[in-house]
Amino acid sequence: MWSIFQAIKRSWLKHFVTQISAFLILLATYVAALSIILATTNMRSVFEIWGKVSDITIYLQQSASEKDVEKLKSHLASHEKVQGFEYIDSQKSAEDFNQRLKDLGSELFNQSTIQDFFPANIKVNLNKPYSFQADKLNLSLFSNALKERFSFVSDVSYGQNWLNQYSKVLLAVEKVNWMIVLAIFFCSLFVAANVIKTVLFSRRDEVEILEFVGETPMGIYGPHIVNCLLLSLIAYLLATVVVAGLFHSSLNYARSVLPAQITGEFQFLSPLAWTGFLGFILVSVYFYSLSAVSSMAPTFTGGRWWKK
Length: 308
Description:
Blueprint: H1 2-14, H2 16-50, E1 52-60, H3 66-77, E2 82-88, H4 90-103, H5 111-114, E3 121-131, H6 136-149, E4 153-157, H7 160-202, H8 204-212, H9 217-257, H10 260-263, H11 271-296, H12 298-301
Antiparallel strand pairs: 1-3, 1-4, 2-3
Helix pairs in contact: 1-2, 1-9, 2-7, 2-9, 7-9, 7-11, 9-11
């Protein structure tokens, strides 16, 4: 073990610029990858908040009679998902619309003129907030059942159109982000492999001497693999500190401009995700380093090192 660290020390002393350059590149790639992963996970958390459905609007056809409305009210009152509801006729809907225009300093329409454009509706308060993603099927079944059972129900709305569109956009952004992370990750592997190749080429004579005197392959090439692992580990740990600092600074700013309900959901990477990504990096760097060494070994003595 001590000989390995002695070899790593010699490598750093002779190739300091190469080593520090590789370390800075690895640090930058890991900072970028962790930042993208963190942003992606928090975007999903924000969507979970915006995607909470706590009320539904049932729009009625103009042909709906008072008896029809009472049947629907009776059904809603006994439904397990419904906590409460409010019936709003077309006149009240038009009044509400006009009031909103007045609040904006404008009144463009006469209430009697626009009343026909605002159907009667029932605002339904659900017994709990339902997640659009997790409970999409339940919400869809509930709305479809109402339209099938009551022919005078023209539509059931809970923001499903814009939620569907937002969900598709979010999914596309997540895919692009993961592709970028994957590309960054392969760049880090390329950097780690090039560190080994650069050092081995510069120490070619020394490696040949060690092979001729009977040094084991792992004794010759092992220190370079361990060096790459250490570079990756230290860069990842430092990148975590940098990203954590940026995250908390951004969170403090977000708290001053965004509602607490949203900022309260922002979280750093979970220990499991952080450890899993670290393990994936180290395992990949190890095998990629082995591949780099195996591609270099034949250029020294003509034989592959793992067969010796």
